[in-house]
C-alpha cells in the first residue's frame, strides 16, 4: 500500500537556489530548497481531496494554527472551496477559525501551552474540526492542543499538517493528513519562520549557519 505521506530521505540534498526564484534578501541565508512552492501546491490539492472525501456532506470547521499555518491553511481552503464548486453531488460547508498557541512563561520544564484567539472555541462544540498546522516537530504541542480541544466537545477532530519532522524525541504522534515527512533540519519559508524572518519566502528551504547567525535576534 502506498504511504499516506511523502517521505523526504535524510540524504536528500534539495534543489539549488539558482534553479528557482528566491528573494534577494535571503539568498545568502539558505542552504537549499527542500520543497518548491509548486510541489507544495500539488500535494495540498491531494490532501484537500482526501479531506473532502472523508467529510462529505457534513460541515467542517477548519482551525488555523497561527502564525506558521497560515499559508498552508489558505491554500488548503482554496482547494477545498474549488472542490465545492466543481462537484455537483457532494459539498462541504466550511467555517474557519484562527488560534495561536503560547507557552506558559516561567514553566519551561512542563512546556504547557495555552490557546489565544479563536472564538473562545465555543463554536467548536458539536463540529467536525480540522486543525491545520505547518509542522509537527516532537508532537508534544499537538497532543496538548488536542487535549484542550476535546474539552470543547467537538463532534470529531482531525489534524492536517503540511510537514512532520523525523525526530528521535518524537512522541510518535501522527496527523491524519500529512504533506511531507522531512529530515531533522530547521526549515523556513511558506510561513514557517526563524525568529519571525522567512515567512515571506515561497519555497520551504533549509536555513544555513550564516542565516541562523544573521537573524538571531527576533524581528521587532
Ligand atoms: N522551522 C520552523 N518552525 C519550526 C520548525 C522548523 O524546522 N520545527 C518546529 N518549529
Ligand atoms: Mg506551527
Structure description:
With 220 residues, this protein is an alpha/beta fold. The chain has four helices and ten strands. It has helices at residues 37-55, 70-86, 140-150, 209-214, and strands spanning 6-7, 30-35, 60-66, 94-103, 113-117, 128-136, 156-165, 177-182, 187-188, 204-207. The strands form two sheets. A seven-stranded mixed β-sheet has the order 1-8-7-6-3-4-5, sandwiched between helices. Strands 2-10-9 form a three-stranded antiparallel β-sheet. Helix 1 (37-55) packs across helix 2 (70-86). The longest helix has 19 residues, at 37-55. The model has no long low-confidence stretch (mean pLDDT 92). Magnesium ion (MG) is lined by residues 65, 68-69, 133-135. Magnesium ion is lined by residues 65, 68-69, 133-135. Its cofactor is Mg(2+). Its main location: cytoplasm. Keywords: Cytoplasm, Glycosyltransferase, Magnesium, Metal-binding, Nucleotide-binding, Purine salvage, Transferase. Pathway: Purine metabolism; IMP biosynthesis via salvage pathway; IMP from hypoxanthine: step 1/1. It is found in: Cytoplasm.
